[in-house]
Structures
1.
Amino acid sequence: MGGDAGIVFVADDLGAWLVGLLADAGRKRLTSVVLGSDQERALRRAATAAVQLTAGELRPEGGGRAEELAMVVDQVFGEPTPTALISGRATLLEELQAGIAAQLAPLDDPSLTGTGKSSADVLGVPATVLVKKLTGHLIREIVVRGARGGPLAPLAAQLNHDVTHLQGQRIENILGRLDNKVQKALARLDSTASVSAAPATPTVGETGQRAGTLTGQQGELAEITHVTAPGAEAEAAPAYARHRRRVQLLSAIGAAIAALAAAAIVVIFYNSHSPSSGRALSTARPGTPISVGSRPDWIVITKNGRTAYVANGADGTVTPINLTTDTPGPPIRVGREPFGIAITPDGKTAYVVNHSDGTVTPINLLTDTPGPPIQVGNQPYRIAITPDGKTAYVTNQADGTVTPVNLTTRTPGTPITVGNAPQAIVITKDGKTAYVANQSTDTITPISLPAGVPGTPIKVAYYPDGITISPDGKMAYTTDNGLESITPINLAARQAGTVIAVNSPIFIAITPDGKTAYIANYAVGTVTPMRLPAGTLGTPIKVGHNPDAIAITPDGRTAYVTNNGDSTVTPISLPARTSN
């Protein structure tokens, strides 16, 4: 399953480093995995696949640039970091993550090259991004390969055990903070100070909200906030009010602890998911692939459903597809590495993000002719347009910013600071809020529009890659490529819910009726349907190599999937009930 077909490469140094790290972890008793020749060969194959996938993802144009990146990444593991720098880790998973971070850290050091630029600057990829990508791909390769049995099965089981352990620690920490807040709240209830003056709401209530994120029990946990709210019993006699509030608070605490106990068994494993209710979602059928440009990375469909536009990352073009006949038209030349497209609400103009040029190219859709590019930030990635068609917002991966673009004058505005390595961006139907997925900080940043003011980041699972909003505007869903999961987010509360395990998710699209989501599974060449709002997964649909993005026609009858590794687009006929 692993590897980019365009990169001929073997990760000898990373493989040898992995063998040494596991041997050292065994001496520290972080693992009981016994290495032999079969295990070492399997580890080297997993390491090679992980480096190839990392290079292929960060250098989708393939060829020499991708191979150069793969070789540099592998070579930094030729001189292992002293174990003292990564010692003190409680689990093998933590040791592996810390070790990769320590090995790749020198790439960000400009003093090592003698040119005033770091190796990461020359490569055009920050070391933090490499750490996230390589770690995610390496763990996934080991665990998915081990899930099938064979020499990596014990190591896969060990990593799964570590995930369970770390999730348990997280729950224990939340319980500890909850206990501390509760003790303070009880002390305030016993004091002679005025109940209305006690700052109870931002203490226990905040902890209850975080617990609710893990368990989905926001209703029960919100009771703590209500009970400790200032002035909730202002009309009652002070002594009776204090007694009643104590009883209510203890009852609410019990509900919170029960909810957290339930969360303790909700553990996300890396191994591939086997849905038990796939039959109800398995009627979608893939059609004949449509050839487009090299490395298609993004796709959008016009409002009338007649044409799709595909951004081809490796050859600097956009391919129009006639959706009546499923035939591609002549490619439209844009900038280097076009990675994102958005179409204005009036359907007259498409705006294409050119990753390597730091620009956005407008295309007149009546004539399919490109206009002068608009300068934005460093390594722009995705773009979204407000419902009124007046402003576009572009994520800039290398800057950690979002650039607003006035579409009337086609001029950029002041960048908005978000998290590290912002990827996808979506805008609510009312145009009041944008949500940005930040890969390196594992967060979603809400931005108030049109003011451009970022809000408190929403913590999601590991390495969010894509984000979409349900048609009713109540929920958002992120693809967490590092943890192989989907995170649902309640947008009214701005709270993440319980994650859903999915194999290698990179993109998610929702049908117009809001009943089904379709998830692109990049590493395994499938699209997984998911029933909403339950989060029930169906049988994966086989498409092409490295499916990367999905667009659904306005009538909900067909999904179109870009296959990054095949340079094709696969149409999928959807069940009739998905039409709106």
Note: Confidence is low (pLDDT under 50) at residues 1-9, 192-237, 261-280.
2.
Amino acid sequence: MRFSKRFFVFTILIVFALIWKFNNWNDRYAAVEAFRGAALNEDVLYPLMSKNLNDAGQLKININGETYSNSQQYAILDDGLNPVGSLEFVRTIMGSSAFMSGEKSAIVQITNDIYEFTVGENVITKNGEEADITVAPSMRKGQIYLGLEDLCKIFGYEYSYDKAKYTVDIQYHTKPRLPAAYDLRKLNRVSHIRNQGSKSTCWACASVEALESALLPAYPHTFSVDAMINENSQGDESKGGEYTKALAYLLSWQGPVEEDDNVESKPVHLQSAQFFDSENLDEIKRAVYNYGGVSTSIYASVSTSNLNGSISYNSFTNSYCYNGSAKPNHDVVIIGWDDNYPAKNFSSNVEGNGAFICQNSWGDGFGDDGVFYISYYDSNIGYQAVAYVSVDTHNTYSYIYQSDLSGWVGQVGFGKAWAYAANTFMAKADQQVEATGFYALGKDTTYHVYFVPKYENTGSLSEKVLVAKGKVEQPGYYTIKFNSPQPVTKDEEFAVVLYLNTPDTIRPIAVEYEAEDKVVDLTDGKGFISNNGLNWEHVEEVKSANLCIKAYANNLVEVYDNEE
């Protein structure tokens, strides 16, 4: 009985303890639920969710039944968890012109219809008339993003979105056609007319003007032609230049700089460019439509700066068509076209109508205030054409690692379409490497990008980790973002490894080496090339060249464990 009484008393105490514990736990549970209730406010929760989902690449997009590779995040979830697309998404996927018209506004042109969007506004204008949209445009790292549902509506594409799976489906039959006539001057996307005088600087004028056009009208600049010439690693104004010389200067971040030293502006960095040739005039039109002015080389058949002595030029109609075999000797900027420009306007017989509208660098006294028409049937129009497709005005990357200040001079390979290349660098501080840059030397180039931390020797390259892969349709220079930042510590060596497969070429890797007026420092690089990704050759030793592979980095972002 004594044991039973003790047991009974002990049981009573346990019951009271449980009751007290339950009440105390209930109070704490209520407090937690109250906190959770506050956190579930959409204004707080959704931005956190969108960041995590975007970082994890959870948004999936299917276009006509095929999965869209969104590795560069041209489409993301906004702070309201709505699928939105960047202007580059509009250009490359939707098939239309799109550009920033102000720091917080953008224009989308679908053939002859012009739509104006403003950040934070649920109202747009179509050819000046107002219309409602579902998702207000938003900004992210200096870029405007537009609701995919709204875009599909104005394009006439079918759209559906599975919120549970974060999956967008877009269906369309045909993309919008290009307009028959297009003139960047009407959209305030043409820079001022320069006058090169007697100097051989047309290449620099054309490059600078095309770059300025790519930024207009949102970001007006007047860049220095003299700086591009005098501060260029290739130097020597008297020898003239070409587009590769301009690209070497811009892609290495040696410039551009403002013409007026008293003008303060944020750094402008060229990150990507595309190349075209005279066999692809429709692609050049699309590039003008999408990105602004496109520089090109032509043959100017007289040495004077007015062409009046040339049989190829009609000064009454400001039209030009050269039919001959002479090599190009002059650069201009294509700023538009007119498919119906009369063939009879040219001084010689041409096969048909149509002309590009071109900006020259012979002052506004030439042609129509510095502008003239070049026939589609000109022998050289479109030769060495370059479009500046990605110009960064928001310092997306703070640091650049490179060993190719003279830029693309030649290419190396192993007699086949594919090869491996690896460039090594030493970290200047505790940083995170976020992207790489390289040249694709032909159409439909497939790339795989790998990262190697703590590089010691070529044996380290076997530890490479895939950080990006994809395919680029046009030849050009591309900055490719990694799927996640790669941290490095100060003085740590790291490597970027590149696999390129470029059809119809036997040397897919771009390099710089000494040639003509190009002076190359081989001591600033340590790169390697490989036939199979296993056995490596030191490119500075076997080819006397530096690899054209760059890396881009930012300061290290601290990430704290959830428990902390």
Note: The first strand starts at residue 60 and ends at 63.
3.
Amino acid sequence: MDIALTIFPSFSDKTLPLGLACMKTVLDREQCDVAVFDFDYQLSVEDRDLYYAIHDLALHSRYGSFPDMINFIGASPEIMFPVLFDRSELDVLLLSDAEMRLNLEKIDSFLDRAVSAMLAESPNQIWVSSYISNIWISLLAAKKIRLRSSASLVFGGPAVYTRDVHLFLLFNHFADAIIVGEGELSAKEFLRSDDGHVDGVAYLDGDHYHYIPRKELLRADEFPMPDFKDFPFKGQGIREYLKRRFEGIPVSFSRGCVNSCIYCSEKEFWKCFRYLSVEQAVGRLRFYMESYGISSFYICDSLVNFSHAWLSDFCERIITEDLQPLFTFAFCDLTHLTPDLLEKMSKAGFSRIAFGLESASPRVLECMNKTIDLNNAQRNLLAAAKNGLPVQVSTIVNFPGEKIVDVLDSIRFFREIDEILARDGVPTAHFPQRSLGNSFRLEPSTDLYMNPWKYGIIIEPINAPWREYGFYTEAITTQWRVPNHTFDRAWHHYIVSSFSNKKGPWRLHDSQFRKQAESLRAIVDDDTFCFMVAEHVVLQQNLADGVILLKDHDLEFVLDTIQSDMMHILRSGSTLKELSRAMQFYDQATFELMKSFILYLYVRGILCIQGFKAENQTS
């Protein structure tokens, strides 16, 4: 095999790895023998508890003592660096924390199996897709690969964009080459080159670091059409992803961002904003609907409303052609929106929108370089709620220079929205969900990081023993501070978090759950998909009348007798055909109603897909 194309757990458990699929399309065109290894999928299905334990360890670690550390590695340095460099300091830490010791042992075992699966195919090269959320576990895997194989290691993705990371990976032999930024053109030249020394790729020539940025970028009409054949592993198909939470096929209509927020790296990473025509975008939707029988889509663009006119035409085209897709997720900007456009989006199939407001303080927004009219933002949030669009709004707390009055401005903004919606009789379930306690982290590749002096920020080294481990570790172990400014980080976080109303999973409205269920109908085979009650669901028998009370997190449902009988069967798993025979549903109309009900419970997370039965097992 030429190339093993892989991604380690990155906690994108709602859809498929879009970047990996784009690169596979390029490699297929170059006639490479490629195999995909989606270990993010594998772990999320095999051991969900460990999957989320890794997520907690990586992004919300209880063990980090450096809240102002630049976010190069997405993990606690006290854990990551001793593990990577086999230092005894980790043993002392593990003695005091049995849970962490157990999780690290499980991670080590999982990576052993993952690496063995790849190396069994004897790849010449292993390409690794890396994000801040998975760079640390990708490095652990690279360390294991080095011990067992001479295959070349090639990293790419947002986590390895900066020069400091290049030096750390290359000089510590975690990588042989790094494809930087937009990777398709660089990847093609890298494959065609005898020595891999091409623009857009960082590498070592002896002991000398070389990197020349690529000037040429893809035109929008050159964006590869991501092909998900042989995902998550060779010989498998897209239906495998239904074994975990599935919110549709990932799609992207643009690259880059029209905004210039100083805390965001999108503009620097993609360099130039480019987008598909409306005709090209709709054509991609139609291709996926015809190829996979799925009409649910997860939009991965930085902003889907980068242009009011473009999005309006896009929605109009979908409505006119009666495509009836369901967009389960999209990021939107509160600036390039109007209530009329929100209504059109709702008719075109948009079912859930995320807004990155980040603050409702005019002073902080100005510091962030966010050009938001707060009155217009409020009008749009009110319109979204009244149009039945589930909305989540996030803010950042403890942005450099933030004061307590800024925190109170954000709370006041959302309180006014709640009061208006309540006065207008909008159900509380339709109020915008608020995620207000997201602590600021200074990311590499942002204007804040690259030009700190412009914003009164000082970036300085961290005084810790692990700075001396390996080569160039000190380059990725720095922290920021604002001179002569102090704020009570915990107090700000406490105040704004107490006003958040996002306590559990982000739920759609009931009608949109039903639309999502119908969008999957064509791909769900009646004979082979085995459904089962999810582990977190509690079924409580009502002794008075024999029906069941179903508890799903904080929600409760009373099931009628027929539904109760179905849930009893589904406790041990059943295909739709097996369930219909057990329930004696012999006419097609009743069967279709049952299927709709089962798919509805699946998209709500009440049921899961346990696996797939062979045809001869269900005949």
Note: Residues 524-618 form a domain with the Outer Surface Protein A; domain 3 fold (CATH 3.90.930).
4.
Amino acid sequence: MKRMRFHVLGMPHTKTIDWWGTCAYTQKVLKLCSMLHSLGHEVFHYGTQGSQVECTKHITVMSSKKHKANFGDDWKKNHTFDIVDKYHTEWYTRAAKAIDENLEVQDFILCMWGLGHQGVLDRIPNVQGKALIVEPGIGYGIESQIDKKLYRTFRVFESYSWYSYCLGREEPLTMGCFTTVPTYDVVIPNYWNPEDFIYSDKKEDYYLFFGRCSEEKGTFVAAEVCKHANVKLVVAGQTQKGAEPLKNYKNIEFVGFVSNEKRAELMSKAKAVFTASQFHEPFGGVAVEAQMCGTPVISSDWGVFNETVLHGKTGYRCRTLDQYLYAVNNVDKLKPEIIRSWAESNFSTKRIAPMYHEYFSMLHSLWDKGWYDIREDLNGEWLAKSYPSDITFISRKDLHDKLMSFQNFISTGEDFPYNYYLNIMSALKTQNGPINLWTVKDYESEYYQLLKNKINVIDVKEHPIYKIFYQEIINAPILEGASKHDIAVCIFDYLSWGIRAREGGSWSGLGSLCLEDRTDLIEEDKDCIIGKCPPEWKENFFSPCGSIWKPNSLTARTIFNIIQEKIKQPASEYEWGCLGINAFNEGIKNNMDNIKVLPHGVLSAHHDDANHLFDEVDSLYPKARVLPLYTTAYNKINKIPLSKLITPEWIEKTDSLYTNTIKKLLTKEEINGKI
């Protein structure tokens, strides 16, 4: 990946710090520095002393003492935007000097404040001969942008709506067409860290307005709608001049300015958040913030909202009172997990970082062949959006019926044991349509031979994931010296999850019965995975963490990273699975909230973790496509896989949920392999 250098200007009147969440400019500076730095680029931040930024180097432009002398102790309230006053002039001079000392040819200078940062450019000698000047995240008008007559700038707009609006204002129409459309002015949406928000699918009995209390922001629209709907409206934010009449509404609770933490709590519990802006909203970040919490948005139907609110999926866009009332009465039909998935998949820093990298790589090629440059690090999918599917996320009580329709099974092991046969036979009895079995080879097992003419056998090597990755990964220099077998197992593990996630599939592979939710076994006997089985087994059996994919497996981590890099999309955009409670916890820690499969082997040595996991099963089940594997236990004394101990004789004499279900579904002849 091409490594580039960025000089990022902070806001003169604030400190670049995470808790100052009400300043969109400050937050964009903070997060863009972090994104670029995480991609391996050199990032220099220029700002006020006390800024806390993830970057290569922070350069203090103005001391805290001078900042305080100019704005007082409460700079959050008393700051000014006078770009020609003494303070700003000194800030520009100091910043220009610092940048000039660090600037190298082909660097970038990022001016997040547009015209407010032009004073820095004016003081850097031959700045355009050394650097490319970019205005990222434009949500302001053409009057506030850097003067294009003085500087050749490259602009990133927050929405296509705002880009078109600005272009229409600055470019006169000739013969009904714009004279020019700048090739290197692009649209990249605003971005958030999902971990800053609380996801909740349980809502309380109120609606929320968050932001400046003013007519143009739609506070009065929200108040009128909630009055007519006879519902409670919580208003959080700064009250501006003209908002006094809001106090006459008896159904409004005012909570004033709130912290980032309180914002997340209010948004996560609200039935819906109003963003009924009465002007051409450039972006309206509150709409995305609400959706990060899994909360529907009720917005106006103009400006950016066509790009951020999916009507009928993540919220409703409205124009008239009756449409707003319809939205209030129907938001409870929208699914929080889909709302959160839409926001995280399209507006998280993890998603937007590759977009910015592609854009800056594209710009950097202007130092070479420009438009004709064929780049090795091209990301042709940089503009792709991830839309929620129409999959119905099922509740625990509906899970059994849903599992019946799955038609794909995975077998990537070295053998095809008896319990695999039992599970496919069960599926043949209960599922509609053909049964697909993905395998790595033509097994010699008598049970496989009995089934192969009754099902569709598919060579897993024909799967696209295998074709794309296997030959390259197994020979990757970074894996030199690693066990070829371990590499193959990791890839096949990934393959099996890919097939399950994309094709549908048995709920836990062939190692477990394919149609029953047996989580009750945890309560029935926490140390025994079979149920009412012989007492002596309780001392000798345990369930391991599953296959080789574990957080501490260097081979698995390396392969997973290679696959992610090749796919060129954040892991949260595709459905993934993990084998073991450790891997599951690792996924949660890395903000992969939309896991569509629950872990294999949760009945491992980590009993406390497993029990805790299933205490929260109601919040996890709506996201589940696959349930835990119970029958891959091992005999600790003899190291004999449990699958080897499952025999026709054992099925006949054992009284457990597993065996009783088998005996209910299959005849004695079928249990004995006589079909």
Note: Residues 484-503 form the longest helix (20 residues).
